[in-house]
Design goal:
alpha+beta; Butyryl-CoA Dehydrogenase, subunit A, domain 2; Butyryl-CoA Dehydrogenase, subunit A, domain 3; 3 domains; four-stranded mixed sheet; 10 strands; 49% helix; 15% strand; globular; AcylCoA_DH/ox_N_sf; flavoprotein
Length: 386
């Protein structure tokens, strides 16, 4: 993937934003378990960073996804995973379907203010009994006149406590599980919608996550994105951007694990010599950097294909899987070299260890990625091919 001067200008803008508007506040936000999303999103919106690949008619920049990838990669250099995750939910998880398939009226009401940073968005798909198995969701939206009446619950919803609207996947019919679902925009202040207590998580502590409950929540059918029954397909398409985003946003964070560990092990002496002088350590760090470069190459390849309009289901799944694999191994290996200091919560490597553990779980678990890849390779067991 070739980067232009425009790409590099965007990269500098995002890097400066991370250094000035995010990193100085990370410790405070991590302790608080939240960050001022509306305030930060407005600043991002003023720079055009929440609508990089969104239509110009609604305030976006109208650029292709390669520019979004630059934004996400630089965002990953933040000293925590929670804030970048919340931003990526807004740009790459809750709004792609809205931008691509919603009516003009819905785009005016929800997409445009989301791009300006005036509204915080959330994607409400996962449920207590349906995480990676999206087809198994139980939330229902029945028709009543010109409205939908929604009942059910969603779990592990990032941005839920601060969201202004949710992009909700619900069953709107009784047909096959891949053909009976619809994506519906639900404003957070709709009567009957309630947010549960914030979840106590291993990592991503600066992002707010909570369950969402729907008790006879009434919204107009006009709030549906795309055709009725097309929700599963639209969500699968939306997942492609989410998975590309997950891979891109991992790169700089993984590199920071390595660079911080190099610096620490160069200064830390054991038995009269820097720890870094141990061949097993500097060889491991070199291997890690090679793996991150492989992830970068795979992610760039997938993004280039995506911007060219190609089907990237395989490549996006591979990039997400590779990111998930490295998210488990690199922070774990690096933390080991920090010894007792790595076990302390106030070290960056410790935070990376906790935050990155979500990567192989969220947005489709590693095992789901492997299943998709196997299916597209034609190597699933015969009984599962249908």
């Amino acid at each position: 993937m070739l980067f232009t001067n425009e790409h590099e200008q965007l990269r500098r803008t995002v890097r400066q934003f991370v250094e000035q508007e995010i990193n100085p506040h990370v410790e405070e936000w991590e302790r608080a378990g939240r960050f001022p999303a509306h305030e930060l999103f407005r600043k991002l919106g003023e720079l055009g960073l929440l609508g990089i690949s969104k239509p110009e008619a609604y305030g976006g920049l109208g650029l292709n996804f390669s520019f979004e990838a630059v934004f996400l990669e630089e965002l990953g250099a933040a000293w925590c995973g929670g804030v970048p995750l919340s931003i990526a939910v807004q740009t790459s998880m809750a709004t792609p379907a809205l931008a691509n398939y919603a009516s003009d009226a819905l785009k005016d009401a929800f997409l445009a203010p989301a791009i300006r940073g005036e509204m915080v968005a959330a994607i409400a798909v996962s449920e207590p009994g349906a995480g990676s198995d999206v087809a198994a969701i139980q939330t229902r939206a029945r028709k009543d006149g010109d409205d939908y009446v929604i009942n059910g619950s969603k779990m592990w919803i990032t941005n839920a406590p601060c969201a202004d609207f949710f992009c909700v996947l619900a069953n709107t019919g009784e047909g096959k599980p891949h053909e009976n679902k619809s994506l519906i925009v639900v404003p957070a202040k709709t009567p009957g919608l309630s947010i549960g207590e914030k979840l106590d998580k291993l990592g991503m502590r600066s992002s707010e996550t909570a369950p969402v409950y729907f008790d006879d929540v009434r919204v107009p059918q006009a709030y549906r994105i795309g055709d009725e029954g097309a929700g599963f397909l639209l969500q699968m398409l939306q997942f492609q951007e989410e998975r590309l985003a997950g891979a891109a946003i991992s790169i700089k964070g993984l590199e920071s694990c390595i660079s911080e560990t190099i610096e620490y092990t160069r200064e830390r002496k054991t038995f009269g010599a820097p720890l870094l002088d141990n061949q097993s350590i500097h060889f491991t760090l070199a291997e890690q950097q090679m793996e991150v470069e492989a992830l970068r190459a795979l992610t760039y390849s997938a993004i280039e294909a995506y911007t060219n309009g190609q089907d990237v289901t395989t490549l996006a799944s591979m990039a997400k899987l590779k990111a998930g694999r490295l998210a488990r191994t690199i922070p774990d290996q690096c933390l080991q070299y920090w010894g007792g200091m790595g076990y302390m919560n106030d070290t960056l490597v410790n935070r990376r260890y906790r935050d990155f553990r979500l990567t192989p779980v969220g947005g489709g678990a590693d095992e789901i990625m492997l299943g998709i890849i196997c299916k597209l390779m034609g190597i699933l067991p015969r009984k599962r091919r249908d």
